[in-house]
Amino acid sequence: MHMSKRIFYIVLLFLPIFSVAQKVITGTVKDYKTKQPLQGASVVVKGGTGGTSTNTAGEFSLSVSDQAKTITISYVGYESKDIAISSVTSGLEISLVPTEQLTDIVVVGSRNLSRTRTETPVAVDIIPITQIANQVGQTDLNQILTYVAPSFQSSRQTIADGTDHVDPAQLRGLGTDQILVLINGKRRHQSALVNVNGTVNRGQVGTDLSAIPVTAIERVEVLRDGAAAQYGSDAIAGVINIVLKKSTGILNGSVSYGQNITAYPKDYALFKTTNRGEAPDQKVNDGGTFQAGLNYGIGFKNQGYMNFSGEYNLRDFSNRTGTYTGQIYPSVGGQNKDDSIMAARGTNRNTFDMRIGNSKIAGGSLMVNSQFPLGGGWNLNVFGGYNKKNGEAAGFYRYPSSVFSGAGSTYRGEALELYPEGFLPLIQTNIQDYSISAAFEGKVGQWNASFSETFGVNTFGFTVDNSVNYSQFAVQTPTNAQTKFNAGELKFQQITSNIDFSRNFNVLHGMNLAFGSELRVDQYGQKAGEESSYRNYDVPSGAAAGAQVFAGFTPPFAGTFSRNNIALYADVEQDFTREWMVEGALRFENYSDFGSTLNYKLASRYKIADKFTIRAAASSGFRAPSMQQRFYAKTNTLFVSGPGGLVATESGTFPNGSAPAKILGIPELKQETSRNYSAGITAKPFTGLEITVDGYIIEIDNRIVLTNNFNGGNDPALQALLSAAGAQTANFFTNAIDTRNKGIEAVVNYSFNIAREHKFRFTAAATFIKNEVRKGADGKPIIKASQVLINSGQLGNYFNREDQSRIEVANPQSKASFMLNYKFKKLGVMLRTAYFGKVTYLDPSINPANPGAFPMNAFNNNQRETLDQEFAPKTVTDISVSYEIGKFFTVTAGANNLFDEYQDLHKHSSNMSLGRFMYSRRVQQMGFNGRFVFARVSFNIK
User: TonB-dependent receptor-like beta-barrel domain: from which residue to which, for each copy (predicted)?
Assistant: First the structure.
């Protein structure tokens, strides 16, 4: 490059242009109704250069050139306002009006304080939780987002151990651990739980969004683009930023109750020939849900504030079990005598029902969000919270016939004396979540500076009740048999330290430069359960070790494990013209356990006539293996397909670097890496109408999965290791596959009034996703396995078709929602439909008589057509009606899933389990709880 050009570009990027004659404009920005100051409101010169943001008192001071004619004031969730610059340039009083739009673009993902909501080069949605929460029946954040943000999907799981108590979520069809969650822009810690059962997001670790009280949330910002170069690990699918309330002097809250009032065909024998629709339905009233929340803020004379929120939730379990068609009691003289035994005992098949549906949850949350001015333009911002949940879910019913049969039948026979009708074991959880974040924020010279520390802990304790350790009868009699067990605890802790600087330079039409560093320490621990929860007291008997349904964590794998990483980042946003902006970011991270990574992001936006914008971005990303994926180890009782139905198997999850993993040739665990590409358009053809359409491609290499179960084979060393852990099989976390994710997202939002008093808001949003495991020229998935593993003959246990379906088709490949809000004086109506596209179950077995067989040539084999199942799309309709009573109270009544829509009844035999599972627990659309009717009283007292 010519030397003069080099000098020009250096000057362009790093030196401010000398200003012409200027004047200073000062003012205050407030909410038009509450008169509360709006901190962080954007103040920019329209069509010119320069910008600033308001302080804690809503005040601003902006230098502008004499040629400037107009300034634009904008704030997240409010209508922007243009102010003509007149002779009066000091003491301006500016009031902004809240907007009810669902899809406003906001500044998450940008460190430019003057960037308005329509100027970001990637898609960002805003979900105004304060407006939505009182209109809908969903009471937790996961479910609210599922129905208002099509790119977000979360379904409740059942018969899945701890996953029954924390709903896994997805963004853009990717994993729950490929979403980065922030609160007030600070990284949120993950749950201690790793999903190891056969659910959606198997093998992944997520953030427990239900630990954050909805009452405390002002809005949720969803950045739909890769952002690892800006925020670090996990931000492959995007970022969810939860913004807490700051309001003061207003007491608001709500009390609500609802329950499922529904019907479903319980008796599988009556509908199995037609699949659905012809069996008499069983009417059900269950799943009662109570919620009470309260929020209040205190304002200080120095413009500081403390906002407090509290919430209590109580959810009863729901049950959509089918009638068991298998043998209940032990055979008598080689014959099944179930009918006569039930008649004599006064029982029937309903006595032996499982509990398949939502788990039972009781919990409460506290949250505080505060700011304390320190003088000299510096503030101390502190927020944090505490959440406690007690959950209860059930496992597979242990029928008298299964209690008595099999190895160790003597001890099981004694267990039958304790439970003559068998037993339904319960998994009870004690989940606690603590967090606190403190940040000193102000000015260092002309730089905006922030020094913050964030601390978070999640603990997950397990208790097994109404159960038994079969082998324990070797040392005690049924009269004093133990039926309740402390199974141990998981714990995850994270400490994050950040230093951030940013500054806006008057270069061309504005340049924002930001840089900073982050130090993070992750710590994961397992606490062993009490001895009787995991011990096999009589190994020769062959009886299953530990408490039935969930054996405790064992001492050999107990302990605390830590790692740290340090990151350095820089990003720049340059407005070359009023229409054209370019953003670039670099981030370097070094992890103590796997090394370094460098990632980038490049994005651009171009405006056309203020009504049309095109945007595009490209970036690289990464996700470090979670501590849970590296160190989780436990033996679980899994029910897998076998001759005659599901068979209980003790399966051990071993660390990736363990001896069994080395024997089998499981590759060493490493980070996932990604490449993200996106392009889109936004249009505002006329007032009130906004349209956005975005397309994207996300390629992920070395995606981490949890393998299926390996047996000891012919290797005596492996057999000995499994036996010592009380396991018959073993699975591991490994980087098994590469994936490609493509999609299109569209949002249309239109607000208008008729005769001023009739207010309408329409929102339509849709997403279309295609996920796939990367395949070779032969159309078969490329499986990343060592030669040792390939030679072992157990490659099918490494990654199979059901694993493939979880990536590709087990979640809706398309989702859409349409919402209409109507307001007339004190009356409000909300009508919403949500469309969930088809899902597909791919059976891993090639022959029902030999379910374990899995040769590699089984992929896409036509022989599987009778075992796979496609579930038809479903549309759910919600409605609510609200009425304001007096000045302070609003009463709302409504129904979710008004027309009582259910997923298709399923046919894949490995999950049918002799009539018990009416609906698939392997693939999910909108769950299977049916209609939910609710009522709510909310209040807002000033």
Answer: 390-898
